[in-house]
Design a protein that fits this description.
Pfam families: peroxidase. It catalyses: 2 a phenolic donor + H2O2 = 2 a phenolic radical donor + 2 H2O. Its EC number is 1.11.1.7. By secondary structure, the chain is mostly helical. It has two domains: 159 residues, Peroxidase, domain 1 (Orthogonal Bundle), CATH 1.10.520; 118 residues, Orthogonal Bundle (Peroxidase, domain 2). Helix content is 48%, strand content 2%. The chain has 14 helices and two strands. It has a two-stranded antiparallel sheet with strand order 1-2. It is globular. The protein binds protoporphyrin IX containing FE and 2-acetamido-2-deoxy-beta-D-glucopyranose (10 copies). One 2-acetamido-2-deoxy-beta-D-glucopyranose (NAG) binds next to helix 14. One 2-acetamido-2-deoxy-beta-D-glucopyranose (NAG) binds next to helix 8.
Length: 328
């Protein structure tokens, strides 16, 4: 056979194999090219946790805010440039998402160990799993092989990400729009078992709920008094409160037992339990009564979320710097 024919035959034989794996993530994507990727990511996060107990929660949230906007493609990480309007300025993210410096540290460590190999989108997926497991939560096999976008979608970040006051019906619709169901809504909301929220995200519940001039009747009265002290009327709206008042930095099922005691922090949290007739109530109760059930569902739902329209194959690129499109 001529070299030319060999190439043609090789291409014909390989094409279906490539197509068969196209669009499919798998757990061993870096086995040959960056076998230590998970332990490298975990090491950087362990170091960061020593000076910032909140960083694990912040990193999990980044994966969520990446995946809901044009899929898990690292678009959230891009800064403004001549061709990019950053998603970091969109209302759900501005002065709120954090941990970008730790993502950069992870990228630097990976570029040193295996240059040009691990995508920023995959870094967010691996960092989310490492953050949960380092905080006492479940472990799971992270599916990998995502590539990075060369575009960002600032308007998409404003419209696709749920807001805490928009109501369970609208939030469920936003999850459904990316292929996630009501079990995913409840399980993934369980990420609010750690991390913080600013007073601005729940203060209407404390003083003037839905324009009634009164607090949200679904807030536990003892908890209400505590929150009113943390967030006084006309106080500093950037003051932080724990999303889980029981075990603020531990990944456990207390988020769900809190909801049963009416001590969910955000309106979107408490509604999962307090919306009468909602299918979410039974799911909250099952996660509250059995942490193993929650952990298994959470892991499954994180995999579902991580599968939202990734770029694979030769789409997109592997960014060298998570903040910038290559060559820009
Ligand atoms: C169900 C709809 C959701 C709404 C309305 C929502 C809303 C919020 C809000 C308002 C904050 C506080 C932000 C701030 O004050 O700066 C927050 C924090 C957080 N969210 Fe969500 N969220 C939702 C779902 C999720 C999901 C699916 C995840 C991850 C799987 C997640 C993970 C987190 C974490 C870990 C924090 C704390 C971050 C930190 O301390 O830096 N959230 N969320
Ligand atoms: C994982 O996916 C990549 C790219 O699609 C592929 O090359 C590799 O063979 C897959 N590995 C397994 C075990 O399926
Ligand atoms: C990979 O990690 C293992 C243990 O986690 C370590 O023994 C090995 O030296 C690491 N290899 C590289 C190339 O860093
Ligand atoms: C990014 O660019 C947008 C639009 O050009 C601008 O409104 C915004 O202030 C910029 N943000 C930052 C952080 O520079
Ligand atoms: C974000 O925080 C900075 C510094 O506190 C403030 O100047 C800016 O107005 C805030 N941006 C928004 C959109 O709230
Ligand atoms: C729910 O979404 C609809 C449109 O999709 C919007 O008109 C409505 O204002 C939203 N509700 C809340 C409470 O934000
Ligand atoms: C949601 O989807 C999962 C599979 O990802 C399935 O096991 C679960 O039963 C579904 N939940 C509902 C309420 O349909
Ligand atoms: C409560 O909010 C509504 C609008 O949302 C406003 O009209 C009303 O004046 C507020 N009431 C109090 C007591 O602040
Ligand atoms: C408001 O609270 C935030 C978070 O604690 C703090 O960083 C900021 O300096 C405070 N602002 C003022 C004006 O006190
Ligand atoms: C309010 O919260 C306290 C402590 O968190 C709990 O003991 C009590 O049962 C709760 N009350 C209601 C009505 O849920
Ligand atoms: C909790 O759930 C797990 C998995 O669903 C199950 O195997 C276990 O038996 C349950 N434990 C109890 C005490 O019901």
């Amino acid at each position: 056979m001529s070299p030319h024919l060999i190439l043609v035959v090789t291409a014909l034989v390989m094409a279906p194999l490539l197509r068969g794996s196209n669009g499919q993530l798998n757990a061993t994507f870096y086995a040959g090219t960056c076998p230590n990727v998970s332990s490298i990511v975990q090491g950087v996060i362990q170091t960061a946790l020593q000076s910032d107990t909140r960083i694990a929660a912040s990193l999990v949230r980044l994966h969520f805010h990446d995946c809901f906007v044009d899929g898990c493609d690292g678009s959230l990480l891009l800064d403004n440039s001549s061709s990019i309007v950053t998603e970091k300025d969109a209302p759900p993210n501005v002065n709120s998402t954090r941990g970008f410096d730790v993502v950069d540290n992870i990228k630097t460590a990976l570029e040193s160990a295996c240059p040009g190999v691990v995508s920023c989108a995959d870094i967010l997926a691996i960092a989310a799993e490492a953050s949960v497991s380092l905080s006492g939560g479940p472990t799971w096999n992270v599916l990998l092989g995502r590539r990075d976008s060369t575009t960002a979608n600032n308007a998409g970040a404003s419209s696709a990400l749920p807001a805490p006051s928009e109501g369970l019906t609208n939030i469920t619709a936003k999850f459904a729009a990316v292929g996630l169901n009501i079990t995913d809504v409840v399980a993934l909301s369980g990420a609010h078992t750690f991390g913080r929220a600013q007073c601005r995200t729940f203060i209407t519940r404390l003083y003037n709920f839905s324009g009634t001039g009164n607090p949200d009747p679904s807030v536990n009265t003892t908890y209400l008094a505590t929150l009113q002290q943390t967030c006084p009327q006309s106080g500093n709206l950037s003051t932080l409160a724990n999303l889980d008042p029981t075990t603020p930095d531990t990944f456990d099922s207390n988020y769900f037992t809190n909801l049963q005691s009416n001590t969910g922090l955000l309106q979107s949290d408490q509604e999962l339990f307090s919306t009468s007739g909602s299918a979410t109530i039974a799911i909250v109760n099952s996660f509250a009564s059995n942490q193993t059930t929650f952990f298994q569902s959470f892991a499954a739902s994180m995999i579902n979320m991580g599968n939202i329209s990734p770029l694979t194959g030769t789409s997109g690129e592997i960014r060298t710097d998570c903040k910038k499109v290559n060559g820009s």
